[in-house]
Amino acid sequence: MTGKKKPLAASPPEGQAAAGEYDPHAMCRAIIGTTSDGFHLLDAQSRILEVNDAYVKRSGYTREELLAMSITDLDALERPEETAARIAKVIGSGGDVFETRHRAKDGTIWHVEISVTYWSFDGGRFVCFLRDITERKRAEIALRQSETTYRGILDSLDEAVYILDEHGTFIDVNRGAERKYGYTRDELVGMTPALVSAAGRNDLGKVMEQCLLAYHGQPQSF
Q: By C-alpha distance, which of 180, 199, 178 is closest to 188?
């Protein structure tokens, strides 16, 4: 046979009938429906037009309840005028990523990171993906509390306390070290014992050798 060959048709997604047509809108709905992040589609007045199962489950509201609400009904941190200012900012820039807090139906407050994109069609639409970051925030608070406790213990000691890295550089000191050497903590961090040691008073080579052994788990006293 002669003549041009017909181009091969693209294969449909797995599970779709060969005779059916690929529907990008259906694919988009499927992705939104299966993501673990929440999803909102808002109009220009921040009213909820669409919401996915993940947000329904996290918020405790029914889909019907959410579709009768606006974002200001859910935000537990921003005042309405602050939300209006953010909306104006998003319209101007085309998108934003920010953190806020939402209130669930039972009154509990949860931390959320929102990634929003503005589309100008049909009077304006906001496409929002909402990630629950409550556990991350709790971990950050616990870390800050631990650091505060650690700092308090160090600074309560009269003796000079230093923490050195494997190269013998100060990475942390307490107030006792500040008093002993007359430098601030910020000035001492990044220095080495050689820079603060009295000339001829210490065998710095031996000190550094012992520091290296201590760094690798062998306690030293000197």
A: 178
